[in-house]
Amino acid sequence: MSFLLRYTILPVILLCMIFLNVNAQEGDTGREEHHPRHQLAAGFGFTFIPVAGGLGDTEARGLFVPQIGLDYFYHIHGRWGGGLMADYELDHYMIVEQQIEREHALLLILAGEFKITEHWAVFAGGGVEIEPHDHLGVVRLGAEYSIVLKKNWVLLPMLYFDFKENYDTWSFAVSIGKRF
């Protein structure tokens, strides 16, 4: 739990301070633009775990684990947002070096987002990986590209890295979302 506190509390506090500052500045302008503030997206992807192997393996060969995800973001300002990212891994595997068994893990990440351009955004946050054998703290860093479709629908390919207590992973996912 100390990992979770050490690597997530400070970023969450900093993000909250930034969001409060952006809200204060937005209120001073006196004008309000109409942009969808909410974004809900569901997707599918793969997580690569370099130190993992199948159950019973004695050697880490690396493993691609399929996952499904559901993300919700609220855009506080045109460039800033925050939200919850939930990913569910669809596999049962072993972290070989530490002999840690992982089975259908659920990752819950509280993240902040910054839009670099109209299409590119970066996000960072922290959370927890919940799993029947052991829970782990997680710090996530990533980027996404928004392809705007008709009627506020978006296609969101993303790449992100998860830094966990005992091992690190990288993931590629594609989501379809709706802005409202």
Tell me what you see in this structure.
The chain is an alpha+beta fold and 180 residues long. The chain has one helix at residues 2-28; strands at 38-49, 52-53, 63-75, 80-89, 92-95, 100-103, 106-115, 120-130, 136-145, 147-148, 153-164, 168-179. Strands 1-3-4-7-8-9-11-12 form an 8-stranded antiparallel beta barrel. It has a 3-stranded antiparallel beta sheet with strand order 2-5-6, with no helix packed on it. The chain is elongated. Residues 22-30 have low confidence and may be disordered.
Q: Which descriptors apply to this entry?
A:
elongated; alpha+beta; 3-stranded antiparallel β-sheet; about 180 residues; 8-stranded antiparallel barrel; 12 strands
List low-pLDDT spans.
22-30
- What's the mean pLDDT score? 86
Strand arrangement within the widest β-sheet reads 1-3-4-7-8-9-11-12
Determine the structural class based on helices, strands and strand pairing: alpha+beta
Mass-distribution shape: elongated
Beta content:
over 45%
Please report the number of helical segments: 1
Instruction: Report the biggest beta sheet as strand number plus sense, adding barrel if it closes.
Output: 8 strands, antiparallel, barrel
Run of helices and strands:
HEEEEEEEEEEEE
Oligomer: single chain
Give the termini distance in whole angstroms: 36 Å
Q: What share of residues is helical?
A: 10-25%
State the total count of DSSP E strands.
12
Radius of gyration from CA coordinates = 18 Å
